[in-house]
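Morning!

As promised:
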Amino acid sequence: MEGGSGGASAVSFVLSLLIALPLFGAPVVYAAGKIDKRLGIYVSLALSAAILVIAGYIFWQVYATPPAPGQYLFQEKYSWISFSSFGLDYFLGTDGLSSPLLFVSALLTVLVVLGSRKLIDHHEAEYYSLIFMFEGAIMGVFTSLNLILFYIFWEVVLIPMFFFIGVWGGPRRKYAALKFIIFTFAGSTIMLLGFLYVYLGMLPNATFDIPYLAGKIPVALQYLPLLASFIGFAVKLPLVPFHTWLPDAHVEAPSPISVLLAGVLLKMGGYGFLRISIGLFPNASVQYAWVFLALGLFSMFYGAVAALLQRDLKKMIAFTSINHMGFVLFGAYATLVSGNLLGIQGAIFQMFTHALAVGALFMLTGYIQHQAGTREIPLLRGLGTTMPRTATILVLGAAAAMGLPPFSSFLAEFMVIAAGISASAITAISVLVPVITAGYFLWMIKRTVLSPAEPGHEVHDMGWDDVAAFAVYLIPLVVLIVTSYLILTPALPVAEFLRGLT
Amino acid sequence: MIDDLTVTIVLLAGTSLFLPLFQLSKWKTAKLPGYVLAVVLGATMVLIGLFTYSPSAVSWAGTLVAPDQLGGIFALVTVGITLAVTVASFDFEKSTSDPVYYSLLGFTALGMVLLSYSQDLLMLFVSWELMSLPTYVLAGFDKKLRSNEASVKYAIIGAMSSAVILYAISLAYGLTGSTQISAVVSGFASHPTALAGVAALLFVAGFGFKMSIVPFHMWIPDAYEGAPTTISTLLAAATKKAGFIAAIRVLLGITTLYVVTGSPLFTMANVFAVLAVVTMTVGNVSALTQKSMTRLLAYSSIAQAGYMLIGFVAFSNAPGSAAATLGLTGTIFHVINHAVMKGAAFLAAALVLLQLKRADLGAYNGLGKRMPITAFTLTIAFLGLAGVPPLSGFWSKLLLVLSVANGPYGWVALAAILNSAFSLGYYAWIIKRMYIDEGESTEKVKEPFWFVLVFAVMVGLIIGIGLFPQQVISFASSAASSFVG
């Protein structure tokens, strides 16, 4: 059936397991949580750890035997629906683009379960089971090699997120939840329309399977679907001006959910741009690459400048996400224009590092609000003396987010900017973005950590167990600057494949 | 010779005739009549299932009734919904423990079965009336002012639509000298006169009342709101589908061969395309502004009729093509899915009305805590209706959209997708009310056993068909291709 994949002989139910385990684990977690809250949390931890092991195995396998350009490991393909002229496959596979995302999603899920035990105090059973529904759907998004299957998982992701924001969110949660679901659902239906357009245009030899479509879609068929998928992905990424749901969603979402939102959900947008916008519509992408580069650059600047103006620590980090995800789009299209592979490699790397760095910061805002009672930067004073452990993590997290060595975000941003410059010298202006980012982070640290404490204001620092949890976010970032090959080696064939499409 | 279809008809008719006798007996108010009907309807479904899979088992397939696969699907769906309504009625209001109520339900089911298999316009009309007349009474069964008003309104509109159909039949007979549907179709094709076009449009209008197509939809929200909600379920999920089978048999036959007037714009495909887009848009926009659940469901039901019409567009545009088969498959599939989803939603609304005595949307605030099973059922039904994957409604909408996306009716596909996205607005709004808003009370409300049973089956179907659609799609597809071919 399948021709020449690197992992043809490998066990090939692993990806299904990766999707099924969380989806079928969700009701188990719910039942356990209904029996006893603590039991629910223990079951969640065990389940998420098991999933992390599987994701880690996949990540390692993809590193050890990177699939050739355009090939996928752990392929599974079954006919799902077929009648007369219509056929649909259940088709999974992974490569150097998706395996880091699978791993980081599984890792963040463990950390989110850990972090939630102190920050979530009602409807725990529902909460933890929804986390696994979310995780299962995310794994499905990153492994689907069939456009309709991809779309299905893509939509399923929305449902738990809607409830996360709506049920466990802040004061304006109702508004934010509805805004989130309507924005993203509208974006994704337009994306679906683009997929159908491709399918119908390719009749009678039409398919929804991504590996067979890549490089085979006639140029004339690429423009409209590129636009349609662009809208779907730009909303998720999010790209200015499609970003307006994000600050609302982040501000209202509970902090662990912000971690998932920024660390995992936004990656769906970056992944979609690489796998589908570029992977399926390369010629049209190249033609309009300058538009995408400009939009990415604009998002980077906009996110950085807007972050500078925020008073709410969490909103500031939300805009940092917009800034960082702009790098992903920018890097991806820089490779298309210049042929410099660093762009796509950097984009994949950036997605990984952003997930951990910003994940740590979002989780931290939850702790700060929990302990200090506010997230307003001007009101948070003297953290360095009152909450030394929290302040240390905040400084380290900020250093990771602004791309300070030895955190690997430095490397990722460096690669993207280098590729940008080889595309056009004008984009050298993008080096200003990390400068602004460093500026607002340092200014925030000056105001919160280095300021004198207000006398008589008693706050409790986080415990050492939490410090350990935060270390799990930050240590991989330090390790990865030395062992960046873990991500960059398997990313190379992906970058070569995408570059070679045009 | 005695065969399955005969047994089915005799069984249903006999039971319906016999049920009112319970009123004379000492079991007058017991639940026994309901149980009897439920068992008979269940047996009917088994029988229909049997001869739908092997139609040769029926010997008297004559000129009036012929048990084909297409009819089998509609008979199964409509009887299935009647069964769900019957079972839910066990625990419903006092008025529904009247044996006459179940007798009338039985007659309606019989009418829908016969209608599904009708091959002759007169047979079609008689079964149409057999289906409709009991529902006029049922709509007023509450003996409350509101219910009676609904009943009268529904009866007047219903009588009018029957008159329109009858007039169309008389025209068809006058033009072709036959009431046999196939003869009428070929007669219209060989003698395309203006009068034949008028007859076709009269059929559209007559069936359109039951199918809840805009502009023949005015009575629907009032009738659904006033009638006992179990009966609204029957109207939205079952009799409406009967309107669709009539339209498929008569109108698709006519349009396969015939363009109504000489004008290139005035084709049946264009008529259906405009009706489809207007119906779904009016339904969705009106649903957004409703303050009562039954009215919201009524408008959502109207919108769904618009989606179902898309298959008619694909069919009329290129009869006999692959797109026509795909479109008709989509329509049949969506009929099945919509019956289940709307049935679940209406029964959930019926239970809320029964237990909380309120139908306004405020009653749904915090329902997730008060009636968790009902709220969950409603959530799944709503997500399915909005076309969120991987639920069943997604697949049928996908087929419908695919059937017209390629070709001159791409704008219909676009309208359907935009409408779907738009409709999630009001569905999500209700889901938000149930799970995110706080209710006036958090006290648990009893969810009776029979309702829970029906909910479980329907939610199972929505999710099950969503995950494994192959079986149902190939069933619908073979019915569609046998009709096309």
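Chain A has a mean pLDDT of 89.

Hope this helps with the figure draft.
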